[in-house]
Amino acid sequence: MSEEIIFLQPVEAAQVVEGVYFPPYISLAHVFNAPKGWTIGPRRFRQYQFQYVLAGAASYRIEDQSYETKKGDLIVHFPNEEHEVRTLEGVPYVCVSIVFHFGSTSFPLEELLSGLHYVGSYEGTSLESALTAIPAEYHQPERVHRLRAQSLLMEVIYTLLRDQRSVALSSDIASLQESHIKHKAHANLVLLKNYIKERFAETIKYEQLEQLTGWSKNYILLRFKDAYDTTPMQFQIQLRIERAKELAIQSNMSVTEIAHHVGYADVHTFGKIFKKKTGHSLSEFCASLLY
Predict the structure, then answer these.
(1) What's in the keyword line of the UniProt record (predicted)?
(2) CB-side exposure of 149: number of CA atoms within 13 Å?
């Protein structure tokens, strides 16, 4: 197929080869110094437009989105979008305005820019230099200057797409990092919970939990409380109470034996905690099961 393309007419070749576009055709390129009280729109272009603020500020609306643009800001709107510009009282507004299109080819600029209208601030950058040079080149009579203007416009588009890709890549990396952090946090919480379950009758200290997770005591308390609505030590007490209930129902063990089995050396301490958590003593709990 590649050998056949070289024998086609240019227009035919452009229709066959995907991803290859005509250079952008500039319809308008000028530096505009807005008079006092100037406004324009609402209006719609069938072409693309870059509006770059060289000085001052203005209010820019595209469809239902409004932007307060200032020096260095670059706005882009896409074909057939309603837009208007309003100057601010007492504030000058000088901008570079460039209207362009890609002829009969379809260039996915909106898709590549993720539909963004405000694409960033470029004050003092090489992109600003390119944007301000386009009108100067465009209004020179020789064709070489028009070619240079088109080349500069392609440089601007390339820079925007490169920056957009960098932002997207940074966002992806940040998302992966956030996902990794969340996954590690979840794993640590499960580890904590299982550790306490397996050792509910033992004396557990926060130093052990810190070594287990690599978290500080305060962070353990924060994350565990957020995930399970209780603290690790309160969770351990809940496990002890539930196990004590099971033993009271399923075995002939005495209250003292049950207390020792679930981790309390002092039966009186166990009795106080059990009553505080359930509202009645272990004996009362067992008696209530007979009715």
Answers:
(1) Activator, DNA-binding, Transcription, Transcription regulation
(2) 23
Give yes or no for a contact between 72 and 53, defined as CB atoms under 8 angstroms apart.
yes
What tens digit of pLDDT does each residue of 118-164 get?
Answer: 988 999 998 999 999 999 998 898 888 888 999 999 999 988 888 77
Share of the chain above pLDDT 90, in %: 49
255 torsion bin: left (phi>0), alpha (psi -120 to 50), beta (else): alpha
CA distance 58 to 67: 8
Task: Report pLDDT for 3.
Answer: 54
DSSP run (H or E) holding 28: strand 25-33
Amino acid at 233: M
What one-letter code names the amino acid at 172?
Answer: D
Q: What is the pLDDT of residue 142?
A: 86
Average pLDDT of every residue of the chain: 86
Residue 48: beta bridge partners? 100
Q: Is the pTM for the entire model greater than 0.90?
A: no
Q: Which CATH superfamily is domain 178-291 in?
A: Homeodomain-like (1.10.10.60)
| CA separation for the pair 3, 13 (Å, rounded) | 11
Superfamily classification of domain 2-165:
Regulatory protein AraC (2.60.120.280)
With beta carbons less than 8 A apart as the criterion, state whether 213 and 192 touch.
yes
Q: Which residues contact 135 (CB under 8 A, 6 or more apart)?
A: 29, 30, 31, 96, 98, 149
DSSP per-residue string spanning 188-244: HHHHHHHHHHHTTTS---HHHHHHHHS--HHHHHHHHHHHHSS-HHHHHHHHHHHHH
List the domain boundaries for the chain.
2-165, 178-291
